[in-house]
Specification:
82% helix; elongated; 96 residues; single chain; 2 domains; mainly alpha
Length: 96
Amino acid sequence: MYEFFQTNTERGVLGILLFVFIGTLLTLILQSSSATMTITIVAASQRVLTFEAVVAIVLGENIGTTITANLIAIISGTEARRAALVHLLFHVIGVV
């Protein structure tokens, strides 16, 4: 497992984007950035993750927190969908 994180960290931007995606996906699945953050901190403290991977995963978790608003917006009106989209864009731009 450690080799996966180490080799992908060395890939540069593509590796960082992969870790951002992993953080987003984990938060989407768990629907809790707090739980995902706890998993990330434990993995970092056990030295399973490199510093670069931890930072990228945390940034991905930030994007993943928008899933709840976007799920609710699906069944809501136009204004709710716009607000959820702006919420998502705000987090994505913040990560970039």
